[in-house]
Amino acid sequence: MRNVRPTDPPVVRVSARAQAELRPAEALVFDWTRLAMCCAVAGEVSLRRTTTREAQGSRVFVRLRTEDGGPLVFAHRRAYPLLVGRRVEIDCRRRLGMRSFSSSLPPDLGLRASFGRAASPLPDDRRDQLGAPSSGPDRQPTGGSP
């Protein structure tokens, strides 16, 4: 794995299947959904499709670099810091005839940062691979009552 610097802009790779499913006037957006009324930072990053006109016309979205000149991909300004230094893959599958776009980001990416746990630069965001203690079924409890 290459060294990741926190200043590296995110790089997005859109699969051939996802490119084929996008319509000519559509773009993909990593949007920010606020989850709490009390904290402006408590939120989640989600992937959705929108019109290129909406994405390009809004000051809220930042255009992301795509590999191989792929389709237009944007990120909400609050979601962008969570994407910095990452390589993100986007794919699309049809479910019951509906297009469903997905990314390689961990599902709880926004909440991790909101609760003070920064996301790891690992592609699948698993900390166990770095030698951190696991909380899985193989781990024996230490201390405390049985």
Q: Can you tell me about this structure?
A:
The protein has helices spanning 16-21, 52-57, 80-83, 109-114; strands spanning 11-14, 26-34, 43-51, 61-63, 65-66, 73-76, 87-95, 98-103. It has 146 residues and is an alpha/beta fold. The protein has a domain at 11-109: Hypothetical Protein Aq_1857, Chain: A (Sandwich), CATH 2.60.300. The strands form 2 sheets. A 4-stranded mixed sheet has the order 5-1-7-8. A 4-stranded mixed sheet has the order 3-2-6-4. A hairpin with an 8-residue loop joins strand 2 (26-34) and strand 3 (43-51).
Q: Please indicate the percent range of residues in DSSP E strands (runs of 2 or more).
A: 25-35%
Shape: globular
CATH topology (level 3) name of the domain at 11-109: Hypothetical Protein Aq_1857, Chain: A
Biggest sheet: strands, sense, closure?
4 strands, mixed
- Using only C-alpha atoms, the radius of gyration works out to 18 Å
Strand order, sheet with most strands: 5-1-7-8
H/E element string?
A: EHEEHEEEHEEH
**What is the name of the CATH superfamily of the domain at 11-109?**
HesB-like domain
**CATH domain class of the domain at 11-109:** Mainly Beta
Number of strands: 8
SS summary, helix count: 4
Portion in helices:
10-25%
Report the mean per-residue pLDDT as an integer. 76
Cα distance spanning the termini: 41 Å
Question: Which spans have pLDDT < 50 for at least 5 consecutive residues?
Answer: 122-146
